[in-house]
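The instructor's notes for this session suggest beginning with a concrete chain rather than abstract definitions. Hand out the sequence below and ask the class to guess, before any prediction is shown, which regions might be ordered.
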Amino acid sequence: MSWRQIFPDYDVPPEIEGVEDLHDVSDHRHACPSFSDSDETVQLWVEHPDPAKREGEGRFAVTYFAEAGEDGNEFSGHTTAYDGDDAQQAVRAFMIALRDRRLRS
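After discussion, reveal the predicted structure:
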């Protein structure tokens, strides 16, 4: 299923949909549309355009899983690489996090 079917009242900017490395991995269990690389190493979340309907602060967030001790984390868990309102910056943060994750593996 695509984000359009699961989240019909959301709007994903073309700056995100047009990126070759971003694949729609939206799921009805998620709070908003999400996109990831083919290995689902890094995820880009697209919150609702209306700030009152968002779960997070920014419209876009980039997250990845990090082991304890990695990236200064005390515990294993999801790390936020970007949280803001600029789609282009979110895509840049996604690409940087993806490159860094691939270099570590």
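Then share the key points. DSSP finds three helices and five strands in the chain. The mean pLDDT is 88.
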